[in-house]
């Protein structure tokens, strides 16, 4: 079943066409990597898909009411702002706000505990979120999105600022969530991680989809040269395929 359908989505920002006729579907059980150079329109695509900015074309999510949308999709924005000096546990519990009861039922507690465990945040749960390191704050915000327990997760550069072990742990968790039937749209700059963990890659450049499909096919030489102006060395490892930009 599809969780997100974008049809001919176009966005104009400051009189400039940032996205041009982008069509995309995310289905249950899929971890989809959104890749592309800086300024390609990855964040814009996510914001438009969620109905946060004006666009033309259609988005199945943006067409829903705010409550239905918040129960369908959790969003991790690129900017990791924490506005108030709340505890880690309280911040994560905000993920339960879209659900009836607003966070006080037994299932809310279970969702919050599960998110804390999955992001290995037990030692931090009573700390003030604003006083954590940048990477620790990033993990707390991922946990808030997990606590929302939505079928779809839209995450804008979720592993930016995480150390290598935490990057791997985060993408392994995303893979596991996909295996459990959730759909994930995740923007990534590390193409090695993208090819290793994603079921599918969508390559965005100049506001259009250059390629959408099997990661190794999307990352073929002419596509990578066209989008990024670089070459990739493809490497087979015991843990699966990866790539090195050269
Ligand atoms: N609020 C805004 N107002 C006007 N233009 C914007 C705004 N946000 C982004 N843009 C422009 O839209 C284009 C796409 O930006 P976007 O942030 O979607 O790219 P991106 O692919 O996510 O980039 P990055 O990899 O650097 O995060 C860029 O040219 C950017 O300057």
UniProtKB/TrEMBL annotation:
GO terms for molecular function: ATP binding; ATP hydrolysis activity. InterPro entries: AAA+_ATPase, ABC_transporter-like_ATP-bd, ABC_transporter-like_CS, P-loop_NTPase. Pfam families: ABC_tran. Residues 4-231 form the ABC transporter domain. Keywords: ATP-binding, Nucleotide-binding. This is ABC transporter ATP-binding protein.
